[in-house]
Amino acid sequence: MSATVPPIKPTEAKKTSSALGQALLVPILAVVTGLIIGAIVIVVSGASVAKAYGALFVGSFGNPLDFFAALKTLFASGDSAALIKAIYPFTESLVTATPYIFAGLSVAVGFRCGLFNIGAEGQFFVGALCSAFVGYSLQGLPMLIHLPLALLGGALGGGIWGMIPGYLKARFGAHEVVNTIMMNWIAFKLSDWLLNGPMKASGFRPVTPNIQASAELPRFFSDPLRFNLGFFLALLFAYLVYWFLFKTTLGFEIRSVGANPDAAKYAGMNIIKNFVLVMAISGGLAGLAGSAQVLGVDHWVGQGFSAGYGFDAIALALLGKSHPLGVVLAALLFGFLRSGATNMQSMAGIPIDIISIIQGLVIVFIAAPDIIRWLYRIRSLKAEETVLTRGWGK
Amino acid sequence: MTNALELQGITKRFPGVLANDQISITLREGKILALLGENGAGKTTLMNILYGLYKPDEGKILVRGKEVEIQNPNDAIANGIGMVHQHFMLVPVMTVTENVMLGVEPTKNGVFLDQEKVARRIREISEQYGLEVDPSAYIKDLPVGIQQRVEIIKVLYRQADILILDEPTAVLTPQEVEGLFKILETLIKKGKSIIFITHKLKEVLNAADDITVIRLGKVVGSIDPQEATPEKLATMMVGRDVNLVVDKQPAKPQAAALAVTDLAVRDENENLSVRGISFEVRKGEILGIAGVQGNGQTELVYALTGLLPVESGEIQLLGEPIHNATPRAILERGVAHVPEDRQRHGLILSFPIHDNLMLCTYYKKPFAHGVVLQEKAIFSNAEELVEQYDVRTPNIYVNVGTLSGGNQQKVIIAREFSRPIELLIASQPTRGLDVGSIEYIHKQIIKKRDEGTGVIVVSSELDEILALSDRIAVMYKGQIMDILDAKKANKEYLGLLMAGIHPSETSKN
Amino acid sequence: MKISTLANKTASEKRKQIAYGIVLLLAGFLIYLFFGRNVEAGVTTTFGLNIAGSQALKVPDLIVPAQTTVYMMMALVVFVGAFQLARGVRSTGLLLGILAFTFVFAFLTWAAQAKSFNLAGMLSSMLVRATPIALAALCGVISERSAVINIGTEGIMLISAQVAVVVGTLTKNLYAGLLAAILIGGVVAALHAVLVIRFKVDQIVSGVAINIFGAGITAFISSRFLQSGTNALNNSGSFPIISIPILSKIPILGPMLFENNIVVYLMALTVIAMHIVLFYTPWGLRTRAVGEHPKAADTLGVNIYLIRYVNVIVGGLIAGLGGAYFTIGSVGRFDEAMTAGKGFIGLAAMIFGKWNPFGAFSSSLLFGFADSLQVKLQILRIPIPSEFLLMAPYIITMIVLTGIIGRAIPPAADGQPYEK
Which residues of C touch B275 (CB under 8 A)? Predict the structure, then answer.
């Protein structure tokens, strides 16, 4: 499998702006169409779309009226409580987007090397557990040491979880799609055991103890705002991944292996090394998604901790065309959607799973731009080939 | 007597290309029409239209004087047209019987395949036309020559009386070609009419009753074989005088560049493809490796370049062992490889030209400092090479996949020739290219030789081998039949070797 | 000629022979280490050969001395391992069979020492638990034989499972539920077919989208409509056991093979029917040709798209049947994500079964075995956390995919869209 999405080159900017428009048009229309079909599902299930999407909007951005009212209060009396309440939904969306950025990058890096990592879910979980372990078990360390260690733990845990299918693919040609799914289930069972046994906090619930304060990603506002350093860390990593993929020899190798493994081998590149390396990086990024969630938001891990991040990540990478910048934008979009959907569930009684439905549709539309072009009668500028798979490995 | 087949004013456009431009040809009943043209002249497109695989934009098709509409292969078959494709259309993991019956399966009780019935019919056809073949054999176990027979049987089984053979001799030894011509004679005697597509001049003169030449999608003209000469045909085919011989000085061989001893290699399916061969290539000479495709040449090259492991034996480059070294280690010692399948191995089609031009050296200065790529150096290198090797492209930023085959090959040549090399291995360097590119690439290869590089040219085109080589090795079933001086070689002799017959031991066969 | 100087066996074959020998010896050592040392002398293990309530004739249970049995298993595997190192056994299947048999039997003897283990019950539940896996695998076989990868089996089965229970509950007719499940499977597969054949969407991406969509829509419906206290939509009951007269009276085999519900029987019929269609009919010949060399089939006038559409949709119908197993074929209600990766395990079974119906079925039995073993072992309260036993099917899948146990070659055109 290979993702042959060409990088955005400075020179390509010379291409007509309509090409750029077209490049953005399909993803945007894909999301819009997904939302429209989502609306149909909501109507069919007997609820009000206006109410549902209204709740979705307020849940993700906050109510603008409240915001201005709060500003007025702030200037009038210096009381910031109302303002914090008003910006809560917006910051919460950014908080939700944080692990998405990491997870989306994880899948995108895999695509670039022709590997389809659909095990970000398991890697996320393992990363979170490792970070939590480092976070609560080490005590008395200064934050400057403890926090990086906790992050490193998550990256390593996820990295190892991703590396195993990478090695099996490289060495035996075992298809990573099935193996990463299997690793997911193994991760779930493992965590069941860990959370009920070795890592269980005292008490009845199968959860880990709270991490030490020194391992927490610092928050920028007082409770209940959970907006934290993790978001900027995610943006930093997006830049690092971009630089790594497009500006270094290692990235060049990875992209070469992804675009044409035979030619890469001919050029003296080590396919096995690259498969293992990429799956380790991919797993590590997914692990960091888990870390960011534990260290920045939850501060502990419980059963069912990762709610479909792995599958979301696939949608993000596809929507972002496996480009870090695209992934960040897609992650923000889904962060706002997910965050708003929680409000929609409580306010309008629409199950949050509606987002999964929309995601499934968005993936289809992105993968089949012809459908979108056909739906909206867009003339195709150029047949754009995106080869992602090559059968069962060999 | 009516004509068996007439095409009138066939035109076919592909995005950006006029593949066929008002082509009209006539096939007389019971005759062989040779359709001659260069690679890319539009012959195959024309035949695919005739066989219903493409739809023409204009023009009509007349079978025995009656206009017919051919929408798909079924229509072609119904009109008695059968096609033997250049790349055999056979399913390797199925038997001869299964391949022949595919699409027109007779059944028992209306449900189950009736294999016996088909096998009987195949035996009948075999006998009638002298096409011996075992109906229960699996295609993958059959040699190429026999596979071609199966293709012809497939056509005859469907009771075709107009046969189209697309480049049927490309994969055959000269002796097998003789055999094929005998079969064609038999077919003509039994009342069939044949269109024979080729780019090989001499075959045309041997076999055809009529010759039509196509160039750049247009009919250049028709000519009677009695009046035609190879030079005349070549000029018609290419549109200018063609130098059929490559200019070169005698070689000045020096010390050994490469020494191979008792080399054995297994292919990807673990079959022993190279069975203990030894040879030497000296600096400043070209060793041509001839042979029908699939006799171990590919595996030999892969072993030399590290793409396949060596089972046993030794490979020495300038006296240093390199067998089982990684492709990179071999590359760094100065081995350049122009691969047989340029799109599979040689290029990353979805990458821009500048990246393909540093595909093997991206990690070295000046392209990288540490792990950081240096775009300035990459771009200037590309600008230089594109200029120097005459790669026709709008700029260095377009994807290599958008270039023509000849220009793609030039990108590979530019990349491989521009770094310091001791040994050049060029596998099928001009396959599928137009004459202009062929001439250019041949010149470049000879230039490399004259600079003192050891050169191996692997080709299944005997003309190319004879034109380039200083010495010629012939491979057959994984072994080298003989290595001879190019001056003493001729086609007939090489042909025998390619068929596994050593002329000095003819008593054996 | 140089050919004769090269040994008959390739280096890799020799390496393989030695590797297998070492693995067998290692198994012997592990049997000693884990089981042999921990079995008390004089204790017996009882293997139950009867199932309560079944029609089969009663036979006496198998009671074996635990320690002796474990050591016998160890001796057997060590002997075969030594023989393999010295001479080499040609059939790897035989080797693996012996390896699996000795290890599992020694394990069971140890686990159930001084207790009773219902062997017949485990074998019987093996087939039942293999059923959805086999159906997922068969869906894969029929699609991929025509070169379309369908990785969306999991999603199709989830949707079908839910539709089965809802229709079954509403109509109060399980057969209507079954039919609806099968049909909706076909519909979803048809969607996949349109996406990958008409729109040439990447086949893996489309499959993943179907999985995500399937998980989403079933969870959505489940939490919006199926959670109500009355269970008005999610309480269909399940198919009764149909005993086949006479045959079901055979001890052990009777209850295993001939006392099952309709889904299991339909699965068996599908295996046989698919084998006949694939290898003895024109449709099968064309399907295989399209999967191996579509262009060849095209030049002979075979309609590639038709073959692919029909096969993918038939695969969907079969996966739909597999979905029905989860609800109306067993527990009678729908739970979110209840397929638990069975669709993916089915894909592994398909690969391990070399894209053949019977091969896929046999490998599904392997997974069914791991699954049922794990359930029975939990009852024995052995000192291994149940979570680790639950991992077994997933780990076995990964081992199978390495191809250490025989590599299979997929249809040559598998996964590639056809371009004229």
Answer: 1-3, 6
| Best CA proximity match to A390, nearest among A188, A192, A169 | A169
Average model confidence (pLDDT) across chain B = 88
d(Cα A308, Cα A305) in Å, to the nearest integer? 9
Interface check B374 vs A, CB under 8 A: no
**C289 lies in which domain range?**
123-402
My answer on whether C331 and C192 are in the same domain is: yes
Question: φ and ψ at A366, to 5 degrees?
Answer: -70, -40
Query: Residue B115's closest chain C neighbor by CA?
Result: C280
Give partners of B (≥3 CB pairs < 8 A): A, C
A223 in reach of chain B (CB within 8 A):
no
The residue to which tokens 């890469």 are assigned: A264
Would you call C250 exposed, middle or buried from its count of C-beta atoms within 10 A (0-12, 13-18, 19+)? middle
- What residues of B are in contact with residue A260 (Cβ under 8 Å)? 344, 347-350
Mark yes or no for CB contact C415/A361 under 8 Å.
no
Does C272 share its domain with C165?
yes
Tell me whether residues B262 and C2 touch, CB distance under 8 A: yes
Q: Which of A229, A4, A230, A12 is nearest to A101 (CA)?
A: A230
The upper half-sphere exposure of residue A213, i.e. CA atoms within 13 Å in the direction of its Cβ, equals: 1
Q: Who among C6, C286, C300 is closest to B264 (CB)?
A: C6
Q: What's the rounded Cα separation, in Å, for the pair A237 and A241?
A: 6
Q: What are phi and psi of B485, to 5 degrees?
A: -70, 135
Strands ordered across the beta sheet of B218-223: B81-84, B162-166, B193-198, B32-37, B210-215, B218-223
Enclosing H/E stretch for C159:
helix C153-171
Within an 8 Å CB–CB cutoff, is residue A380 touching chain B?
no
The verdict on a CB contact (< 8 Å) between C282 and B83 is no
Q: Does B372 touch chain A (CB under 8 A)?
A: yes
In sequence order, the β-bridge partners of residue B455 are B286, B424
Element (H, E) at C209: helix C203-221
Q: Would you call C302 and B92 a contact, using CB atoms and an 8 Å cutoff?
A: no
B280-298 pLDDT per residue, tens: 999 999 999 998 878 899 9
From chain C, the residues in CB contact with A316 under 8 A are: none
Q: In 3D, which of A217, A216, A198 has the Cα closest to residue A207?
A: A198
The alpha carbon of B1 is separated from its chain's Cα centroid by a whole number of angstroms, namely: 37
Task: Nearest chain B residue to A387 by CA: give it.
Answer: B350
How many angstroms away from the CA of A252 is the closest CA of chain B? Answer: 8
B154 close contact with C: CB closer than 8 A: yes
Whether chain B has a CB inside 8 Å of the CB on C52: the answer is no
The per-residue pLDDT for C410 is: 80
pLDDT per residue as tens digits for the range B390-437: 888 888 999 998 888 888 999 999 999 999 999 999 999 988 777 778
- Is the domain of C342 the same as that of C211? yes
Domain identity same for C76 and C11: yes
Which of B231, B216, B204, B233 is CA-nearest to residue B434?
A: B216
Chain segment B197-226, per-residue pLDDT in tens: 887 777 788 788 999 999 888 898 888 888
DSSP lists the bridge partners of residue C355 as none
Cα angle vertex A53, ends A48, A56, to 5°?
130
Least confident of A260-269, B304-313, C406-415: C406-415
- What is the pTM (predicted TM-score) of this model? 0.84
Residue C104 and residue C136 share a domain:
no
Class of residue A356 by CB neighbours under 10 A (exposed 0-12, middle 13-18, buried 19+): buried
Contact A353 C401 (CB under 8 A): no
- Domains of chain B plus CATH, in order, are 3-238 (3.40.50.300), 243-334+421-509 (3.40.50.300), 343-419 (no CATH)
Task: Identify whether residues C96 and C148 lie together within a single domain.
Answer: no
Does residue A343 have a pLDDT over 90?
Answer: no
